[in-house]
Amino acid sequence: MDPEPDPARFRDLMLDGEPGFEEVLRCVFGIQNHEARLYLELLEAPDSTVTELAETVDRDRSNVNRGLATLLEKGLADRRRRLLDSGGHVYQYRATDPETARELMHETLDEWAAYVHERIDEFPCATDGQSR
């Protein structure tokens, strides 16, 4: 997680009356809409290639590659190399299972809460001789 999380992400989530899994995923990991969509697509179609994903989500391959790099960095996906019969290889991507993703979200949110608690503890209190 980022050393100093962006509180605006969490504020937006709290203001949403009933956020769904995708909104929480975006908020907690600080990912964009298309990256959350890639994650959900990988849940539906494991072992997809960049080309297959680009067609499915209607985005160019470079955009899909960047989104997948973000998902890999956040621990929300992994990739495997598959050798092609014609020679060469292709990477296939798979979403982290939802249970593990939930655990990662809890851990990330707990880290953010600990960060906020540290900032709160840095506030001077009235017994420190500080007035409000």
TrEMBL record:
InterPro entries: ArsR-like_HTH (IPR011991), TrmB-like (IPR051797), Tscrpt_reg_TrmB_N (IPR002831), WH-like_DNA-bd_sf (IPR036388), WH_DNA-bd_sf (IPR036390). It holds the Pfam family TrmB. Coiled coil: none annotated. Residues 25-99 form the Transcription regulator TrmB N-terminal domain. PANTHER family: HTH-TYPE TRANSCRIPTIONAL REGULATOR TRMBL2 (PTHR34293). This is TrmB family transcription regulator.
